[in-house]
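Write out structure tokens for Phosphoglucosamine mutase.
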Amino acid sequence: MTLIKSISGIRGTIGGQVGDNLTPIDAVKFASAYGVWLKQQRNKENYRVVVGRDARISGEMIQNLVMNTLVGLGIHVIDLGLSTTPTVEVAVPMEHADGGIILTASHNPKQWNALKLLNSKGEFLDGVEGSKILEIAEQESMTFSDVDSLGKITKNQAYIDMHIDEVLKMPLVNKKAIEHANFKVVVDGVNSTGGIAIPLLLDRLGVHTVKLYCEPNGHFPHNPEPLKEHLSDLSQMVVKERADLGIVVDPDVDRLAFMDEKGEMFGEEYTLVACADYVLSKTPGNTVSNMSSTRALRDVTEKHGGSYQASAVGEVNVVALMKQNQAIIGGEGNGGIIYPELHYGRDALVGVALFLSLLAEKKMTTSELRATYPNYFMSKKKIELTPSLDVDALLKIMEAKYAHENLTTIDGVKIDFSDSWVHLRKSNTEPIIRVYTEAPSQLEADSLADKIISEIKAVANI
């Protein structure tokens, strides 16, 4: 089964059986549930939803199904066409819309797609809202509008430019310094909408851009997750072009990673660290990331006199804690920058503008900047379990075993040691325990993960 229903939306592979994959019928079913839920929120005459998509091959088909389903419910649609996740998030409040839908499976391969659902603030739905939509989707019947009450579709393909306008208006974006630095940058847009948005932003910032895989045709030239092992072409191009850095985003442009002038990864975990360092140096305050993100953000935050807190994994959880903690920047270690100055959503365009401002003001090379941050190394492993095993009970045993350490249990079990940590989480979709560790060296991170895995297997007799 490759249809995954969650509080933030529905994702799956294209084709196959209804209910087991993301078929046209499933797309219509969940778009209908979302539309019905929206209309339950407020009794009004006109409802509006912003819809955009990344460049994956199935995107146009799924978008047409979703938009016309909303039309059938009497909801007006603002069609952004090819867009980015953060662009749709920005557009929802600018359009005074009731919600938004982004059609993207983020970093998943090309056979996947998804409906990601937003509220009227342009933010992902919380658990209560998402659960209600899943409940509505399972109802036997839904009521659609009559012929005189159908919605209308209005195209507006200016929003990437409008999004860039909003990024450049942010007070901390030092456009003058970036222009003066005369940067040369290679951009890997993984043949999706980042290939449109990032070069446009860089052009507005006065950056000389070399495009790599920036044709938005949905044929991903490599695994679209922006990790080192997928980016050999970018590394070679950065060195060949003698560029100052490389930039890579995922297909929907909410994750961001950098490569230094030597063709080495800056470190996806360190995207947020660097951007937070810059923001905190100008406007001291608090930060938030999820529990599986690097400890370096805590170090940088405390260096600037702020307070750091960790949330459960998931963007909606990070945003909730950011609001509670009045954090001025936050995000996730997967290269997701959340800067409330513009909006509460991961935004690679915001990250690029902040990072280049920092680099221009520091007057350092990208590798020199990376050397100024604490060095941590992560290991990400998993334990496959039989479905009969009680994962919660296993995590409780590990919690008791390490009760003398600094524990956090809001999302699995995180054990903080003096110079390292381990985070154990069960998967919501398969019988596995995810084991993430961080330590001062890769060997130590891997050894800690292997030690914990051995202890769990001993308890579970596997």
